[in-house]
């Protein structure tokens, strides 16, 4: 059971990209905090390490913090699979609050699961203030599918989904398997709402936490990037905060069609009305984009 779930959503490190400037009153730039995706680490020289280095070379004086969850790169990678997400978020909140270079505020960029984890930071820990959140392939309504699965009608897909779901909401798996904490089963909505330790909480599924709602609306911009040929995240609509309609596993709904938006349980409707939400898309598979696309589409949000 656990082994099968571990294979779920496993993707390679993000492709190499570059970043650009944002301004503050100290050295001319707003600090940038990065949170990597599953199977990656803060300092992988082929992914996050290279991104951090290029940003620092591109923007004179910028402070870039690539989050390490643990004491070393090995722990950081392992914790992306096994450490309670709530504990990870708490650890990051503490780290950010104690960093004097971030006291004036920072921008944040999360890759894959790092996107929704940074959103949890914005909702739970408003100090220091997060200014702009860029979620690159983040699964904001969770996932209910398998990487490179051959279609929604496949009996194999359905069989594996049932196997995953039979253990995804047990206390043991929820506590110790990261991906189970954002497994969202539309066929068992009550089970999901009751036992999801992380996603159901930050998405206001059980009750409306007014503090979460208020804090998220403090963002100046919330940018969500969807990969149009994504074979890893299912459904891909989750990268724009959409998801499968409750009670079935074929039809999806957009964020704007959801109860979350219509009741504005998280403040996203108000944010869109205020021009704070941006929905971007790019051709390609999960976390695969060109440097040119990044520079043209994401750099403006860091200036």
Automatic annotation (TrEMBL):
It catalyses: S-hexadecanoyl-N-acetylcysteine methyl ester + H2O = N-acetylcysteine methyl ester + hexadecanoate + H(+); S-hexadecanoyl-L-cysteinyl-[protein] + H2O = L-cysteinyl-[protein] + hexadecanoate + H(+); hexadecanoyl-CoA + H2O = hexadecanoate + CoA + H(+); S-hexadecanoyl-N-acetylcysteamine + H2O = N-acetylcysteamine + hexadecanoate + H(+). The keyword Endoplasmic reticulum applies. Coiled coil: none annotated. Residues 1-19 form the signal peptide. Its EC number is 3.1.2.2, 3.1.2.22. It holds the Pfam family Palm_thioest. The keyword Disulfide bond applies. Its main location: endoplasmic reticulum. It is an enzyme of class 3 (hydrolase). GO terms for cellular component: endoplasmic reticulum; extracellular region; Golgi apparatus; lysosome. It is found in: Endoplasmic reticulum; Golgi apparatus; Lysosome; Secreted. GO terms for biological process: receptor-mediated endocytosis. Keywords: Disulfide bond, Endoplasmic reticulum, Glycoprotein, Golgi apparatus, Hydrolase, Lysosome, Secreted, Signal. GO terms for molecular function: palmitoyl-(protein) hydrolase activity. It comes from the Eukaryota. Belongs to the palmitoyl-protein thioesterase family. This is Palmitoyl-protein thioesterase 1.
